[in-house]
Each structure stands twice: as structure tokens, then as C-alpha cells.
Amino acid sequence: MHRLYLHTSYLKKKIVPALLVIILATFAGCNLNQGTGEQMVNLAKVTDDPEAQLANLNTAISRNRQDASLYVRRAKILLGKGELPMALDDVNKAVELNKNDMGNLFLKAQVLRAIGKVKEALPLALRAERNSFQHVGVYVLLSDLYLQLKQPQKASVYAAKALKLAPRNEFALYYNGRVAEAIGDTARATRNFRLALQEAPDFAEARRELAGALINQKNYDEAAMHLDKAMTLVPKDAMLWFYRGQLYQQTQKGDSALWSYNRALGFNDSLQLVHYRAGELLYARGDNAGAIAHLEKAAREYGHTVKYITMLASAYERTGHNIKALEQYQRLDALQPGYTFADQSIARLKAKLTRPMPAASAEPDTATINE
Fold first, then answer.
1. Torsion on CA atoms 286, 282, 309, 8, rounded to nearest 10
2. pLDDT tops 90 at residue 362
3. Which of 60-64, 117-121, 260-264, 270-274 has the lowest mean pLDDT?
4. What share of the chain is helix, strand, coil (3-state, %, to 5)?
5. pLDDT over threshold 60, residue 22
6. Could you tell me which residues the TPR repeats occupy (predicted)?
7. pLDDT one-digit tens code per residue, 244-280
8. Which letter does DSSP use for residue 296 in this model?
9. Domains and their CATH numbers in the chain
10. Mean pLDDT value across residues 37-43
């Protein structure tokens, strides 16, 4: 039984780290089992001595360029190595040679997902599933794609299908937990993550998300234990460092929290949530310039929220960026008409910006001085 590995998302969006093996599946009776990093297949059998396999496949393809299965096998190895453009070229050739093989479409969807082209991967995975390519792998992939597209209700449909087909499969359990997490059902999420870990104790992502859920439940001691275990498996996982920072922040260890957030951003600077929390922490400390640097990078995810706009506007004003501050207060007023704080801030800044500049002092009469 092959083990399928999915590289996140959450993460949400992203370059493929060496420590995370990307989605890779074999299609004859394949099932999901274990992995690290939002993963989908254990490459032990398909990539033992991958360089030798690649050499053999290169020779085979040079002799027979019309065998789609050879391109599929090479695409899987390239995908496992993170050589995504080459993997995509091979799977495109396989699809061209055999348009009716839904497994080829599924593999292409996985490659596109690994590249970050979620919207392009989705219709291919759906087409494969709707043409009787129905197994745990495709259901897990669809659940993951819908979660990335922020459609948890649709993700839940496919997570449930995966669990029905394989009730003890750790990926089916994990994605049911992810769906529950997305809709705010922390208790169900925690239960599913625990069950996933019973099936695969080294499933680092399940342990990571369990730690996050436990932090939200204020179960800090158990959360710390799971974070420590997960970090022995994937020490460069950005979200693990984020959760560690969150744990420190909630236990009033601000310096350690900020250090952890910076570690997370060192591994993945695109994580909006981490920038937001770092900005929030710096703003509370009165480091307005530092807060601005992080908050500006969190605008895509949080720019429509009252708390975010309020913090950014206030930080701008405190650092003398009055026009930027005014723009943010006006956005806040549009978001919450009649909000007294926003109205007062707008009036204050308009008065400050329209106040006449003090007259420049007269130049001294140098002739008189010389005299």
C-alpha cells in the first residue's frame, strides 16, 4: 500500500520545501496513509534510487515515445524530487497520448496543486472523480483544493467520502479534522487529529494541527508536547513555529513569541496570519514602525477587518504618516458607518492636515549684522 503525501496550503500557498514531499500517487489500488507536510504518498517504493529509475526511464522513453505509462512513471519521480516543470511536461505528454485515462488527469491535478495552481487543478480532479476515478486519493485532493479556495462546505463533502471509503485512513481523518477546524468545530477537529495520529504517529501535520487546536482550548501543556514531537520531524515547518509563537503569546512570553514568529517567517514570509500576529504583538508593545512592517504584509487576508484597520491607522498616525492614517480611518468609517472612534479620528486628522503651517521666521538683516 502506497502512502500519499500532501504539501500544505495552509498554508495556506508556496515553494515546495525539501522536507515536504508533494502529492504523488500510484493508481492501482492506491490508498492514503502517512507523511509529513500536507502529503499524499510514501515514496519508498516509487523512488528507491530515483536517479537510477530516471536513467532507465529516459532510455525507455527514447526507444518508445508513444508509451504514456513511461511518462507517468517519470512524472511521479520528478514530482517527488520537486522538479515540477519537468513533471508537468511529462504528465502533459501522458495526457496527450491517453486522454481517457483518468489517472493521468489526477496526476496532472496533483502536479498543478504542487505548483500552486489550485484553480487549474480543481477541474481536472473533479473530472477524474466524475468519471469513476473514485478512491481516497482523489477525495483527499479535492478536499484539500476546496479548503485552499476557502470553500469548507464543499471540502467537507469530499473529506466525508474519503472517510466513508477508508474509515481508518489517517489522511481521511486528517482532512475531516481540517474541515471541522475551518468551520470552527474545534472539538471535532481535535478528535479527528487524534484518530489520525493513532493510525500514523509520525504524521507531523496532524500533530501540528492538533497542537493548534489545543492552544485554542488553552490546553497549553499538551499542546507544547505535540509541538516538540512535530518539530523533531519537520523542524523547518513555518506553521509549527507559528503555533509555538501563539503558545508563547498566550502564556505571556512576548519575546519568545516574537522570536518564534520571525522564525516562521524566515521559512515562509508569505504567511499572512503570522505577519498579522507579529504586527499585533509589536503594536501592543508600542513599536508602531515594526507593527506597520508586518501589518502591511497581512493586508490581503485581514485588510477588511475592523481590528486590523484600527491598528494600522493608529500606527500610521503615531509615526506621523497622517495621510495614510486618514485613508485607513476613512476605510474604517466605510466599513462601520457611524463608528464614533473613526469619525473622531477623521476629524482630528483633517484638522491637523489643513492647519496652516507656522510662518517661517524672517531672515536676519545681514547688512545690519555686518555693520
1. 180
2. no
3. 60-64
4. 70, 0, 30
5. no
6. 68-101, 136-169, 204-237
7. 999 999 999 999 999 999 999 999 999 999 999 999 9
8. G
9. 1-184 (1.25.40.10), 201-270 (1.25.40.10), 271-357 (1.25.40.10)
10. 41
Look at the alpha carbons of 289, 293, 299, 301 in this order and tell me if their dihedral is positive or negative: negative
pTM: 0.79
- Checking phi first, is residue 185 left (phi over 0); if not, alpha (psi -120 to 50) or beta? beta
Question: What is the rounded distance in angstroms from the CA atom of residue 142 to the CA atom of residue 175?
Answer: 10
Q: For 365, what's the count of Cα atoms within 13 Å in the CB-facing half-sphere?
A: 3
Could you tell me which residues come within 8 angstroms of residue 314 by beta carbon, excluding any fewer than 6 positions away?
283, 288, 325
Contacts 24+ apart (CB under 8 A), 102-107: 102/127, 102/128, 102/131, 102/132, 102/133, 103/27, 103/72, 103/128, 103/133, 104/68, 104/72, 105/133, 106/25, 106/27, 106/133, 106/137, 106/138, 106/141, 107/25, 107/27, 107/72, 107/75, 107/76, 107/79
Render pLDDT for 332-348 as a digit per residue (tens, 0 to 9). Answer: 999 999 899 999 999 99
Burial class (CB in 10 A: 0-12, 13-18, 19+), 341: middle
Percent of the chain with pLDDT over 90: 76
Q: Exposed/middle/buried for 337, CB within 10 Å: 0-12, 13-18, 19+?
A: exposed
